[in-house]
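Annex B. Sample input.
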Amino acid sequence: MTSFPQTILMCPPDHFEVVYVINPWMEGQFASIDDALARRQWNDLRNAIEQHAKLVLEPPQQDLPDIVFTANAGIILGKKVIVSRFRSVERQGEEPHHRAWFAENGFEILDWPHDVPFEGAGDALFDRGQKLLWVGHGFRSDAARAFGKIAGSQNGGVESD
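Annex B, continued. Sample output.
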């Protein structure tokens, strides 16, 4: 068995669809998902990731089509995680599922303010080359105002349009 230094969380697209619009990339995509293509692309991505990282799966949820975007589940450092607080009501139902998955898998869950929207690794990434946390902020996240909690790192913010 091969040991990989990185673990990637994925969620199968069993219930993926565009049934609402919460960002500019969803505009014009309402109800236009090709299920067979989405599954084929997900399988191809899964196969590629498995060549370079350990893969773990979070179960899909019937009424949470965007739970497939697992980078948004939280931000992780070692076995510590800050679980996302979604700004959009449509994604807030994912929060208890992500929290439960991380707890069941042995992560220490760090508190995050309920009134500070943050979408996990979609809004912040650890630099692999230095002790630095890159944080974006803008229409979906206020994370830049509340970091430093997970790692005593310097923060660099990038505003999204």
